[in-house]
């Protein structure tokens, strides 16, 4: 932790906060009147999805489902349908489960502490800490890929974030200001720095307010870890997406004839994709051989 101590002069926090005052993005979920429920929605959506794609969908959702009970009253299939092209649609299912738990167990009130947040369906360690920090101004470390990359470079001299480790939270905790009132904004600033300046490719070190960066001092050693390039075209994930698009675009059950016509390149692959959607609970099979989005089988009788 000696390296961490070296990067903790008092003015580091002041410099980063001053930089954030100038460069903070005007993101809608950072507004003064945004509720903890709306922040929770944003955190779920932002997992593995770029900000630009999240903004319009988030604005649509907070108007449609301003409180957890409003979402809970909608069917899970309707929530999956509304998820659209954000990707990884199981997040929509988990968010519906979370809304139901908040409506039934917490009277529509999002808990403020990490431990209780972790009891909610679909809420992992990062999301629980992010909600506690950004919705309730709690002094807890929040570590995403951007924070890990900043710490990896500035503190440990590595070119990239590497794989998540148990020490990540301790590293972030050590950087937090002693003043709890400043900690939440500092956490947001640290994330913003990784998103805008200390980027994975082409970092703009000349614009960085962190002057004590071990990676720069070492001459910015090249990243040696090779990242796997995830192909999409022709993968099971693509076929899953095509099938799910058919269900989302339909206002009723989908028959086998329509499913069979979606992907003819590899019948086995199509069946695997269909089976995986069933296994994940995103779609349901009906007694007449048709399929529908989760939770919608009871709304459609055979032959209708």
Structural class: mainly alpha
Helix content: 40-55%
The average pLDDT is 91
Overall 3D form: globular
- Characterize the main sheet: 2 strands, antiparallel
- Rg measurement, Å: 22 Å
Ends apart, CA distance between termini: 66 Å
Low-pLDDT stretches are 1-9
The SSE string, one letter per element, is: HHHHHHHHHHHHHHHHEE
- Total helical elements: 16
**Number of distinct beta strands:** 2
Strand % is: under 5%
Widest sheet: strand order?
A: 1-2
Family: Belongs to the Nth/MutY family.
Enzyme class: hydrolase
Cofactor: [4Fe-4S] cluster
Domain HhH-GPD: 45-196
Describe this protein's structure.
With 304 residues, the chain is mainly alpha-helical. Helices cover 52% and strands 2% of the residues. It is built from 16 helices and two strands. The chain has helices at 2-6, 10-23, 36-46, 51-64, 68-73, 76-83, 90-105, 114-117, 125-134, 145-154, 167-175, 183-196, 214-217, 236-248, 256-262, 267-279; strands spanning 283-285, 291-293. The longest helix has 16 residues, at 90-105. The N and C termini lie far apart (66 Å).
Short note summarizing the structure:
The chain has 304 residues and is an all-alpha fold.
Describe how the helices and strands are arranged.
Elements lengths: L1 H5 L3 H14 L12 H11 L4 H14 L3 H6 L2 H8 L6 H16 L8 H4 L7 H10 L10 H10 L12 H9 L7 H14 L17 H4 L18 H13 L7 H7 L4 H13 L3 E3 L5 E3 L11
Helix pairs in contact: 2-12, 3-4, 3-9, 6-7, 10-12, 14-16
